[in-house]
Write a structure and sequence with these properties.
Distance between the termini: 153 Å
Number of strands: 0
Helix content: over 70%
Largest sheet: none
Order of helices and strands: HH
Structural class: mainly alpha
Shape: rod-shaped
Number of domains: 2
Number of helices: 2
Low-confidence stretches: none
Length: 101
């Protein structure tokens, strides 16, 4: 009986060691994968999220300013158009015969 118990103990230790080794290998592969992925992403020269959000906010602000300027320009163009309309034709004054010589 003692040999069966010893055999099972050895098998249990072997299985425990194999599971521990498998977990270590898994952790190593995950670390290696993450390092390679980070290196690949850094080589792609991607924009960090903070910079993207900052540029996006600036673009929104500039779009709003552009719309405001566009409406001001349209209002000024309408004003200029109304001011530059030709005046109605006036009747020419008759020449004064006394001043003509």
């Amino acid at each position: 009986m003692q040999t069966n118990s010893r055999l099972f103990d050895d098998l249990a230790r072997l299985a425990t060691g194999a599971v521990g080794t498998a977990q270590g290998v898994k952790a190593e592969w995950e670390n290696l994968f993450h390092q390679r992925l980070e290196r690949f992403i850094s080589d792609m020269d991607l924009v960090p999220r903070e910079e993207f959000d900052a540029v996006k906010a600036m673009a929104v602000l500039l779009r709003e300013e552009n719309d405001a300027f566009k409406s001001r320009l349209e209002a000024l163009e309408k004003k200029v158009a109304t001011l530059s309309k030709p005046a109605p034709a006036r009747k020419a004054k008759a020449a004064n015969p006394k001043t003509d010589k």
